[in-house]
Structures are given as C-alpha cells and as structure tokens.
Amino acid sequence: MTGLNQFKNFTTNLAATDLMPALFMGHGSPMNGIALNEFSKSWTDIAKSIPVPQAVLVVSAHWFTKGTRITAMDFPATIHDFGGFPQALFDIQYPAPGNPILAKETAELIKGTTVTLDHDWGLDHGAWSVIKHMYPLADIPVLQLSIDYTKDAHYHYNLAKELLALRKKGVLILGSGNIIHNLRLMNWEMIQGGGFDWALEMQETFKNLILNKEHQALIHYDSLGSAAKLAIPTPEHYLPLMYTLGLQNENEQAVLFNDKAVGGSLTMTSVQIM
Length: 274
Fold this sequence. Notes:
By secondary structure, this protein is α/β, with parallel strands linked by helices. The protein is built from eleven helices and twelve strands. 34% of the residues lie in helices and 16% in strands.
C-alpha cells in the first residue's frame, strides 16, 4: 500500500484519535545523520516512544523561501545541501515517499497565506539527518513545509496553529533547527560539548520560557538582550521552534531532551509537546 493510500484511509478511520506529539529537534551538524551518538540515539528512542505516524511534516531551517511552499511529489529527492564533509555523508539516500494528497490538504488548511505545491525541493539535511534515525526503513511519507523569510516569528507561530488538525490525523509535525545557532563564533575544540557564557545564559533563559509556556517572550526573542542577539544572529534555525510551540495546547506540557551546548555557540536542545 502506498503512503498516499495509507493517509487516505487514516483520515477516514482515525479522525478522532488523540493528538500526535509535536517535536522540535536540534539537528546540529549534518554528520549527525550518520553518527551513532547521544543525539541520534535520542532521535531513535523518541520514535519508539510515540505512536507510529501516518506521515511526517518537517519545517526545516534549510528551506527558506519567499512565500510558503510544501513538497507535493510522490518521491522527494534526498538533498545534500552542504559541503566539506566525508563522501559517506553524500552517499546517503533516504527514499521515503511523499504524499501529494496530504500536501494538498495541508495547503488548504492554511488560510492565512497561499501555499504553493512544490515539485522541485525534496528532503534537505534538516529533515533526513534526523528522520533516518527515527524511521530507518523510510516507509513513512515525509513532506516539508518551507519557512517564509519575509515574515517574523509571530507570523510563523500563528501559521502553526492552522496545522493543528493534522495532529488529530496522525501526522507528526517536526521543526528542525537549533535554538542557539551562531556558526561564526563556533569553537571546534568544544565540539564534543561546552558553551560560551552567553550561550549557557541563553540556554537557561530559553529552557525556562519553553517550560513555563511563555510563548510571547520567545516570539519576541529580539527583546531578550544582547546575549539573545548572539544566540540568534539570523532567524532560520530558530523559527522552526515557533511551529512546535504554536501547536501546543493549554493542557499540554513541553519536555526537553538533548539539552546540551556544543562548539561554544550552538545548542542541541530539543522539545517534545505532549
């Protein structure tokens, strides 16, 4: 049975199911896609701890577009959107199916903007480097929703709320980025672990805000002081978090995992909404 037909049957039979969790994954280096380490192990473990999704919708830091797009092909390509890494990383293919029906349904759910059905992108490393550890058989449909770079965090937070119906239909919505991400300041001698003082300060600030559901402060991250400006010099890795938080209901809690600083200026902190 194709992924396309699986989703069609699921929306008919299980529309009243409990909500799927929503996730934000700190994906870090593309090498995590092939490494067996503490981060990739937790991705494997989290997949075993939640219901098997009917499809996965990824909002990745690495698909930044003017306007909003969603992949709508039967079989999205594996994109190697990086350079300077070992050939083994470029050899990776993640042949998960897409789901054109789900893509169209998702586009129609979003009323705040026009969503373009995209047949050219595929799965970038923000998607496949994480999902290949979660679902190594590549038998679950995977789609990507792009991030409109012309819009602010508040816009993306509100757009996420329009996707809530997908959680009721067994779709796992997964933001993929890094809450603190400043590659210009990275110290490769600290790549196994450790953060600069300002990064550790902001790590604690962000964690407390997430756990206390202080979403407005997280939306207006540029008002959190000079350390926040170092933590988020550009927004693309932070904005996927807005999609995860925007999907949180009043009765749901956030659980943190992979809460570690690496390279001085990057955190792998990840969030599960459940």
